[in-house]
């Protein structure tokens, strides 16, 4: 059996894990081989946030938050890969180019599998410590598989998921594995299993937000069940997360002299993940029109560029000097919990609860002298659309709009076809388009043909 290469680049990258930390990290058994032995060895893998924090970037480009027309001269700063993603091309990468997202996510799965495969038998740790390390690894693995499934696999349809083609499912760090795809239902089953198992051994809140916690696991379960259209379970896990009192900042506090918290100190961020690169606008004027006077998100989450892009651009948060100014946050956040719960209430036609949750968030997003509370009459025209619009305003510059677009194809008119003009040619993405699924990089398929390309 030949060695499989789906995580070839992960192994090359993760090779640095065994030499870059302090001497206590691992012990040398023989030349050119290092062995993870103690519970602390596995903990150090988790503590090295570079192993799990950097993720992907293309969902920011493929969503309808980007303007319907971008001049070739303006998009030249993106590079050809981003340009091809912008028009949902049949392929994104050429020659020997690597898909950073695919590599990053499978690298995270590999490291999580390494931890789960050995931590419970490790030395010098209590059972509680080992279970806590394993729980964090499960959350990271679940997040990675969810991200992969919502980029490289079909849109989850509960009536078809057993027959939908999913992804290679790797649950051990063994290189000799069958890389044929399992069903999409099996991928989501594993995500749910990992998260449900993890919650039993996680602290309510993280010591640092790049560590998984119970509130983050609940938030991710709510997101996953929303994608699976199991709205009752999505609401239940949102309630469990809300019971832990997640922080939502009053943005007006940061419009003057107060410095917005660095990413690592940001209490709204429940699980820190950042984009593997950055995208600068321009943003869709239709998105900008959703913001109302006094909405501070338009001032603080979005930049304005009078030069190259001549309009609004992604830059969230523009006031954060944490070193990730250009990279988007693509992890889990407190506002997502509120809006997941609001969407479930909207689907249950509970206008009172929808209004209450939207107001809870909006009051902290507007200048006090401009804030006007919503009433039931304000959302009566289309309860679900009012939540979708709020999600777009709140999650600008993140991956969530792309994920929402995909799942809303199963809700009829809530998905609107997206047209773009680029280099003199128009491209349209419809609800039935296979381009709602990203192509598998040819470099991966050359090494592992059994994975198979997605329909184009």
TrEMBL record:
Keyword Hydrolase: no
Predominant place of localization: membrane
Keyword Cell cycle: no
PROSITE patterns for this protein: PROKAR_LIPOPROTEIN
GO annotation, cellular component aspect: cell outer membrane
InterPro entries the UniProt entry points to: SusD-like_N (IPR033985), SusD_RagB_dom (IPR012944), TPR-like_helical_dom_sf (IPR011990)
Protein species of origin: Sphingobacterium athyrii
Similarity comment: Belongs to the SusD family.
UniProt-listed Gene3D superfamilies: 1.25.40.390
Subcellular location: Cell outer membrane
UniProtKB keywords: Cell outer membrane, Membrane, Signal
RagB/SusD domain span: 312-455
Source domain of life: Bacteria
Protein name in UniProt: RagB/SusD family nutrient uptake outer membrane protein
Residue ranges constituting the SusD-like N-terminal domain according to the UniProt record: 72-226
Stored Pfam families: SusD-like_3 (PF14322), SusD_RagB (PF07980)
